[in-house]
């Protein structure tokens, strides 16, 4: 994982991919990130949260519509859900409960939180 945060050109590529009007393939996005030496775990732990922050800033600056940000956030969520859990194979299972407020409309943060917890072992 990067200790200094995401590399800007890679982050920009991720953000542009999730806001593009063309189709989006989460597995292909992981492959694109891997070409920049970004592992899936690092993508979920570092790049996706930063991308979500960029989306929020662009919405506040009226650069993106609410619909654009919502679709982009769903694409980021699709990436987290499509992540390969192979690095964690063979680890003892554990349980975790992630609770979101009833009024919460997005759960991308909860999904990203699940990755470090998942690193401790499969969550059931």
Tell me what you see in this structure.
The chain has 124 residues and is an all-alpha fold. Helix 1 packs across helix 3, helix 2 crosses helix 4 and helix 3 runs antiparallel to helix 5. The longest helix has 21 residues. It is globular. 22% of the residues are buried. The model has no long low-confidence stretch (mean pLDDT 80).
Beta content: under 5%
| Poorly predicted residue ranges | none
Number of strands: 0
As a percent range, the share of helical residues equals 55-70%
Report the span from N to C terminus.
Answer: 25 Å
Compressed to H and E, one letter per element, the order equals HHHHH
Radius of gyration, in Å, reads: 15 Å
- Structural class comes to mainly alpha
Major pleated sheet? none
Give the secondary structure arrangement, pairings included.
Blueprint: H1 8-19, H2 26-35, H3 40-60, H4 66-82, H5 108-119
Helix pairs in contact: 1-3, 2-4, 3-4, 3-5, 4-5
Provide key terms for this protein:
124 residues, mainly alpha, 5 helices, 58% helix
């Amino acid at each position: 994982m990067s200790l200094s945060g995401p590399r800007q050109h890679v982050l920009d590529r991720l953000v542009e991919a999730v806001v593009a009007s063309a189709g989006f393939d989460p597995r292909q996005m992981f492959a694109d990130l891997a070409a920049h030496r970004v592992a899936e775990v690092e993508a979920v732990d570092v790049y996706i949260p930063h991308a979500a922050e960029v989306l929020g800033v662009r919405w506040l600056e009226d650069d993106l519509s609410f619909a654009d940000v919502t679709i982009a956030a769903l694409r980021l969520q699709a990436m987290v859900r499509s992540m390969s859990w192979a690095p964690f194979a063979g680890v003892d299972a554990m349980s975790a409960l992630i609770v979101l407020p009833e009024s919460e409309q997005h759960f991308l943060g909860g999904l990203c939180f699940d990755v470090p917890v998942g690193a401790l072992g499969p969550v059931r």
